Amino acid sequence: MLVGSIVYIICTLTSALCVALLARAYRRTQQRLLFWSALCFAGLCINNALLFTDVILLPNVDLSVWRVIPALLGVGALCYGLITEVD
Questions:
Q1: Model confidence over 32-51: pLDDT tens digits?
Q2: Which region holds residue 44: left if phi is over 0, alpha if psi is between -120 and 50, else beta?
Q3: Could you give the CA distance from residue 29 to residue 50 in angstroms, rounded to a whole number?
Q4: 19, 45, 50, 82: which one has the fewest Cβ atoms less than 10 Å from its Cβ?
Q5: What is the rounded average pLDDT for all residues in the chain?
Q6: Is 75 in contact with 39 (CB distance < 8 Å)?
Q7: Residues in Cβ contact with 41 at an 8 Å cutoff, skipping those fewer than 6 apart
Q8: For the whole model, what pTM was predicted?
Q9: Structural domain harbouring 53
């Protein structure tokens, strides 16, 4: 249980770090694909945080639907960015 908690926290922090780095790079270069990638990782970060909440903090509550929504929106945003940002 402790190892799982640590892994979930590390995944959440890694996703948050990716969001910060991608957002910083977007502000510097104004490359739109960096923006869409940052949105994707923001969704994945929220997904990881909800996974930790679902499995570790509230094991008797099913948050699986609420967990999937941010990940789906994030990946959808990245797909939209990949399709529309043609150079």
A1: 999 999 999 999 999 999 99
A2: alpha
A3: 32
A4: 82
A5: 95
A6: no
A7: 15, 18, 19, 22, 74
A8: 0.91
A9: 2-84
Count of domains observed in the chain: 1
For tokens 């941010």, name the residue. Answer: 70
Confidence band for 4, pLDDT divided at 50, 70 and 90: confident
**Amino acid symbol at 19:** V
Q: State the pLDDT confidence band at 1, using cuts at 50, 70 and 90.
A: confident
Closest CA to 12 of 63, 37, 39, 49: 49
Write out the two tokens for 67.
């967990």
Calpha distance 44→69 (Å, rounded): 10
